[in-house]
């Protein structure tokens, strides 16, 4: 996971709220008539580099200058062995910020999650919120970038390896460790019949006890993504229609790799974000 010092370098003015939690509080007030989220939650992908995270932060600051930004990171312990209860406790410092922006009139939250790891952390935040408030996490809209996938052995290992350093020798050594670790976890789940984290997050994302979305959601995904196959995304989107009153939008890229859609076509990517908060009925079902 990127260090606090590294994130501070790229996110000037951010405040560390705990392990993997960073907050940028805007000094610009949001007019109540302005169609902007008052809080953006970025649940980043596994091992996301600070310079990559900062690209999303800076663009959000440009599009919605009066919006607060909450950054959530995911670590290896979160993904492989740390109990859900511990993960949720770790996210407690973020809950008051969510409550502030979800319970006040004219306040809305945009939840933007990346990959299965980011979706997993977003779901743990929703559970932490429910344990503190007794209600699901109310958000204006959800953006699901390269998620959710399925829990096959190869897809999971590829997802971890994608976040590893690019140095060939280091990458090869870490890849062997990841294969062994994922293999051990898979064997443990088979013996104990524990539910895999991807199976659980797929359910949580479509569970109103976890998330209550007013404007609906948009899935951003690609046929070239080998970690989150496009068919898995569309199956999940079909199931989501029942809890979003049809407010589901599918944005399919053809050639962009995993969590690289913004880099491949930034104009299209950010227009999708803008449309969520415009007067246009941007989230009509496209299934």
UniProtKB/TrEMBL annotation:
<dbReference type="Pfam" id="PF05705">
    <property type="entry name" value="DUF829"/>
</dbReference>
<dbReference type="GO" id="GO:0005640">
    <property type="term" value="C:nuclear outer membrane"/>
</dbReference>
<dbReference type="InterPro" id="IPR008547">
    <property type="entry name" value="DUF829_TMEM53"/>
</dbReference>
<comment type="similarity">
    <text>Belongs to the TMEM53 family.</text>
</comment>
<keyword id="KW-0539">Nucleus</keyword>
<protein>
    <recommendedName>
        <fullName>Indole-diterpene biosynthesis protein PaxU</fullName>
    </recommendedName>
</protein>
<keyword id="KW-0472">Membrane</keyword>
<keyword id="KW-1133">Transmembrane helix</keyword>
<keyword id="KW-0812">Transmembrane</keyword>
<dbReference type="InterPro" id="IPR029058">
    <property type="entry name" value="AB_hydrolase_fold"/>
</dbReference>
């Amino acid at each position: 996971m990127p260090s606090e010092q590294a994130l501070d370098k790229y996110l000037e003015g951010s405040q560390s709220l705990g392990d993997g939690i960073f907050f940028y509080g805007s000094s610009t007030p949001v007019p109540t008539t302005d169609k902007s989220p008052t809080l953006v939650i970025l649940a980043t992908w596994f091992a996301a580099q600070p310079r990559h995270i900062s690209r999303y932060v800076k663009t959000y600051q440009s599009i919605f200058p009066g919006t607060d930004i909450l950054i959530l990171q995911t670590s290896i312990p979160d993904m492989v062995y740390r109990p859900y209860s511990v993960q949720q406790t770790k996210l407690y410092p973020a809950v008051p910020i969510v409550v502030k922006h979800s319970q006040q009139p004219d306040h809305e939250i945009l939840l933007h999650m990346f990959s299965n790891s980011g979706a997993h952390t977003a779901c743990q935040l929703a559970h932490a919120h429910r344990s503190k408030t007794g209600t699901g996490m109310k958000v204006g809209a959800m953006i699901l970038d390269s998620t959710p996938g399925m829990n096959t052995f190869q897809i999971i290992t590829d997802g971890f390896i994608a976040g590893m350093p690019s140095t060939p020798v280091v990458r090869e050594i870490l890849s062997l460790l990841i294969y062994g670790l994922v293999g051990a976890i898979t064997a443990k789940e088979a013996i104990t019949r524990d539910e895999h984290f991807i199976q659980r997050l797929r359910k949580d994302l479509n569970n109103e006890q976890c998330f209550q979305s007013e404007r609906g959601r948009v899935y951003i995904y690609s046929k070239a993504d080998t970690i989150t196959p496009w068919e898995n995304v569309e199956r999940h989107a079909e199931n989501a229609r029942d809890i979003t009153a049809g407010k589901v939008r599918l944005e399919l890229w053809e050639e962009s790799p995993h969590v690289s859609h913004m880099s491949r076509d930034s104009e299209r990517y950010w227009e999708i974000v803008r449309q969520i908060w415009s007067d246009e009925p941007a989230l009509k079902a496209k299934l």
